[in-house]
Amino acid sequence: MSWRTVSGGRIDRSRLVQFRFDGKSYAGHPGDTLVSALLAHGVHLMGRSFKYHRPRGVLAAGSEEPNALVHVDRGGGRETPNLRATQVEIYEGLVATSQNRMPSLRFDVGQAVGLVARFLPAGFYYKTFMWPASFWKKAYEPALRAAAGLGRAPVAADPDRYLRRYAHCETLVVGGGAAGIVAALQAAASGARVMLCDEGAAFGGGLLDERDAMIDGRPAEAWLGWALSELASRPNVTLLARTTAFGWYPDNLIGLAERVTDHLAMPDPKLPRERLWQVRAREVVIATGAHERPLVFPDNDRPGIMLAGAARAYLNRYGVKPGARVVIATACDSAYAAALDLHAAGVMIAAIGDLRTDPRSPGVDAARAAGLPVRTGAAITGSTGGLRVTGALFGTEWVACDCLLMSGGWTPSLHLHSQSRGKLGFDPASGAFLPLETAGQRSIGACAGMFDLADCMPGHAVMGSIAPNGTHAGLVKGAKAKRAFVDFQNDVTARDLLLATQEGFRAIEHVKRYTTTGMATDQGKTSALNALAIVAERLGTTVPEVGLTTFRPPYTPVTFGTIAGASRGALFDPERRAPMHDWAAGRGAVFEDVGTWKRARYFPAPGETMAEAVARECRAVRTQAGIFDASTLGKIEVVGPDAAEFLHRMYTNAWLKLAVGRCRYGLMLSEAGFVMDDGVVGRIAEDRFHVTTTTGGAARVLHHMEDYLQTEFPGLRVWLTSTTEQWAVIAVQGPQARAAIAPYVQGIDLSPSAFPHMSLRIGTICGVPTRLFRVSFTGELGFEINVPAEYGPAVWAVLMESGTLTPYGTEAMHVLRAEKGFVIVGQETDGTVTPDDLGLSGMIAASKRDFVGKRSLRRPDMLAADRKQLVGLLTDDPGIVLEEGAQIVEDPRQPIPMRMIGHVTSSYPSATLGRSIALALVEGGRARIGATLYVPMPGQTIAVRVVAPVFYDPAGDRLND
Amino acid sequence: MLVIPCPHCGPRPENEFRYAGEAHIARPADPEALSDAAWADFLYMRGNPKGRHAERWRHVHGCGRFFNCIRDTVTDRIERTYPAGTAP
Question: A719 to chain B: which residues are within 8 Å by CB?
Answer without folding.
Answer: none
